[in-house]
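Below is a filled-in request sheet from our internal design queue. Each sheet records the structural input a requester submitted and the sequence that came back. We keep these sheets so that new team members can see what a complete request looks like end to end.

REQUESTER: design group, bay 2
PRIORITY: normal
MODE: inverse folding
CHAIN LENGTH: 353
BACKBONE (tokenized):
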């Protein structure tokens, strides 16, 4: 019967990858045991390509329905594990995927989005690192409540990332005195980025998220030339002045052969807390003007999210019930799905089966 169950699962496709679970190597285990009075109980363990899979419920429903078509099956139990895939060549030792979060201009909430995505992925069960590559204006440490912490080295003379809210992070804010301006030219920026990437004890990570500085300058160039990047995410606000610069960021990544995993529209709308009326303060739907790229989600303008960032506890942890936090959690799941699609499209078939 086990063979019949396995054959039935060939009819179940991953909704995002559009291929069946068996050929994708996602079926880890099938157990068949007698079930009174004359049938069998079947237990199937499915290894998802990310613990943040946004379509887990759909896969469970389809697996259950397919196995129940096998004669003699009376009950079906579906378990889930997760194994984040990586490109053929890992970008860094122990790191499966490097994801860049960029924007064409400042003031669009890019760092806040990066911090919340990182924490949401970690809450789903993934191992996540966050690298603050905005050397001139680092804000990640403050948003994670670690502005006073200092980076230290280990016995191998590597920087040890600071841990907060389930993620590991590195920021220039934890290396330089508070309030001190860094007056550095390009070569020094390049050196700092190299140290953050390759002279840090990141350990084993499913995702290393890199919060880029605004624009299309030295840091972006240094990163794309130094490490294999799985893809980039563009954060923008809806108004045209932000979209113009976001389009430039997209063009930069295109020239650097970095795939665009999707667009996030931040401050997309505002919901009045007293009346529930929705206001499009900066317009809405502007991300659709950026070409044929997936929209990962729209994040409303929410004063509590700003307060959470100032208090050092990301919104997805401090107030997960708010509209902004729910949107960010959904964006993290959508991004994880896009990463799975991107990495699996690069792998030869022999590595999937």
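RETURNED SEQUENCE:
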């Amino acid at each position: 019967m086990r063979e019949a169950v396995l054959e039935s699962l060939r009819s179940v496709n991953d909704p995002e990858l559009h291929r069946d679970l068996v050929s994708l190597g996602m079926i880890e285990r099938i157990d068949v045991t007698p079930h009174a009075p004359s049938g069998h109980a079947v237990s199937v363990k499915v290894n998802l390509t990310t613990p943040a899979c946004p379509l887990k419920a759909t896969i469970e429903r389809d697996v259950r329905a397919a196995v129940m078509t096998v004669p003699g099956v009376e009950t079906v139990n579906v378990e889930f594990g997760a194994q984040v895939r990586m490109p053929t060549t890992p970008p860094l030792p122990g790191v499966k995927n490097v994801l860049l979060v960029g924007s064409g201009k400042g003031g669009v909430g890019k760092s806040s989005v990066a911090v919340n995505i990182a924490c949401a992925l970690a809450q789903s069960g993934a191992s996540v690192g966050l690298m603050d590559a905005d050397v001139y204006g680092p804000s990640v440490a403050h948003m994670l409540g670690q502005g006073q912490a200092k980076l230290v080295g280990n016995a191998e003379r590597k920087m040890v990332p600071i841990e907060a809210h389930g993620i590991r992070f590195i920021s220039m804010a934890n290396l330089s005195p508070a309030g001190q301006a860094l007056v550095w030219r390009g070569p020094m920026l390049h050196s700092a980025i190299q140290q953050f990437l390759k002279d840090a004890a990141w350990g084993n990570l499913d995702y290393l998220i890199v919060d880029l500085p605004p624009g299309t300058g030295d840091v972006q160039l240094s990163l794309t030339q130094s490490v294999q990047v799985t893809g980039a995410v563009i954060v923008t606000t809806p108004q045209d002045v932000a979209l113009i610069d976001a389009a430039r960021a997209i063009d930069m990544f295109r020239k650097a052969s970095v795939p665009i995993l999707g667009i996030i529209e931040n401050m997309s709308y505002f919901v009045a807390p007293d009346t529930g009326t929705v206001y499009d303060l900066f317009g809405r739907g502007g991300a659709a003007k950026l070409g044929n790229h997936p929209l990962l989600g729209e994040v409303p303008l929410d004063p509590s999210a700003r307060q959470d960032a100032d208090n050092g506890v990301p919104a997805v942890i401090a107030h997960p019930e708010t509209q902004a936090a729910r949107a960010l959690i959904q964006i993290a799941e959508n991004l994880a799905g896009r990463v799975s699609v991107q990495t699996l499209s690069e792998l030869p078939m022999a590595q999937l089966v």
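SHEET NOTES:
- DSSP finds ten helices and 15 strands in the chain.
- The chain has a mean pLDDT of 90.
FILED BY: M.R.
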